[in-house]
Amino acid sequence: MVTPRFQRARSDEQREVRRQAILRVAAEMLGQMPVAQLSLNELSRRVGLAKSNVLRYFESREAVLLELLDSAGRDWLDRLAVTLPTRVDGGAPATVRYPQVAGAVTESLVDDRLFCELVSVSSAVLEHNVSVDVARRYKVAAIANIETLAGLVRGQLPELSTEGAGAFAAGTVVAVTGVWPLTQPSEAMLCVYEDPAMAALRLDFGAAVRELLTTLLAGCLARWPAAQRPAGQPAGAASPGAGRPEAS
Question: In the CATH hierarchy, which top-level class contains the domain 61-223?
């Protein structure tokens, strides 16, 4: 990678170019190393700015990665919005569609290492060493992303209430946060898993997340169903009052 060399930023446009360059290089680095190994010194070197200059745009390494997480999350949801309708049979009953939805969400996550890596350390690492303002902006953006995912799911499962879709969306983030580290074993653990007696302990990310999301979505449908759809209304169309959760 050619390291850019920047002149002093004198306009808002130039400052935004710097910000995007920092985020882009951070994303490239995370394709080569885990979050724990990404240092602000090395990020600054690769961007071609002094560390003090990087800190003019982001108050800390964690602030860089929180913004990158939000961007990665929005990119993931943009892709899911395109692929989800193609993976779900809108004319099928909900008992067929909900596993298809869970499977499509899982498929969209399997190859998204950047989002999975960042979200898996968001609460334990990235939410520390940031100011209240940065933390608040991140949480507002995270809520918006969860609402977007909930809307995509309800588009394919109108039998699910708004509350249920929100619970599923939040649970999806929790599932990825928990499963991703367990499916990224160290070299030592890979050697251990070569023992047939230990092989069953090695988790596959896609298989584990699919099972969790399928079970979660079944539970959300049972606990938070939407209002009854009128007879003859297509499965993919929202029914009147579908956004109102039933009492649990």
Answer: mainly alpha
